[in-house]
Amino acid sequence: MDWPTHKDRLGCEIVRLLYENKMILTWYRDKPSGWHLHSGKWSPFYIHLRELSSHPEILRKIGYSLNLLIKEEMPDTDLIVGLAMAGIPIATAISLEGNIPAAFTRKVEGGVADYQKTIEKYGKHSLVEGQLHKARKAVLLDDLVSYFTSKLEGLNLLEYEIRRRNLKDLDIPHVLVLLDREQGGYEEAKKHNVELHSLIPFKSKGIHWLKDVLDKIEYDTLKDYLKDPERFQEYEIQNKLSQLCPSSTESR
């Protein structure tokens, strides 16, 4: 089986597992009022992958799949850097599967500008934990991407640490995520000379892989939302959607 076909099969299997185990939530099944994202936009679905560590079988499958992706698309990778916090368990799973060394970034509010505060808080003189000196090609790893903002912050942290340790031979040509919401992240990565890779491109493929496990109104609404999210920002539309749910209560 060629890699693109195998990759799609793995992505399809995993995105269904994420939905079935409520790491992909929808207004229809889980929360009639929907969600307001960090951007302030209303959404009929929410992707919550921070619970992956509670599902070892799924996490193991993700480690297997992303290790294959790295071997096929980034074969010169010799270091995986998990972006705090959601990227850390995934990076560990890949490391164990592929025997690739892993490191992880610290969570820094405000980015490298608050580096001194981070040193005082942790008592550590490093923004990245792990051995970097033996690596030549690193990939920054996270759970998902929307607009690439947090990935760019992670790259800045890693590049800062590379300079601080004087690791002139270490390059970061790739960013890898499990799921790409396809909201401009790939294009933004290109602007910074970085290649963005994902197993599940949600808008172009992931939503269609879920068609057989979603209710028809659920599938149609999510597909339409991904095409034109602005149309769903009106309260009247949100209220109408909430009335279509099997239950009108907030808890299920």
Helix content: 40-55%
- What number of domains? 1
Shape: globular
Which sheet architecture does the biggest sheet show? 6 strands, mixed
State the CATH topology. Rossmann fold
Continuous helix count: 9
Low-confidence stretches: none
* Rg of Cα set: 19 Å
Topology as H/E string?
HEEEEHEHEHEEHEHEHHH
Mean pLDDT: 93
Q: Could you name the CATH class?
A: Alpha Beta
User: How far is the first residue's CA from the last residue's CA?
Assistant: 42 Å
Task: Please identify, by name, the CATH architecture.
Answer: 3-Layer(aba) Sandwich
Main sheet: strand order: 7-6-5-8-9-10
Helix/strand structural class: alpha/beta
Can you walk me through this structure?
The structure is a single chain. The chain is an alpha/beta fold. The protein has one domain (about 5-245): Rossmann fold (3-Layer(aba) Sandwich). The chain is built from nine helices and ten strands. The protein has a six-stranded mixed beta sheet with strand order 7-6-5-8-9-10, with helices on both faces. It has a two-stranded antiparallel ribbon with strand order 1-4. Strand 5 (about 80), helix 3 (about 85-100) and strand 6 (about 100-105) form a beta-alpha-beta unit. Helix 2 packs across helix 3. It starts with a helix and ends in a 9-residue tail after the last helix. The model has no long low-confidence stretch (mean pLDDT about 95).
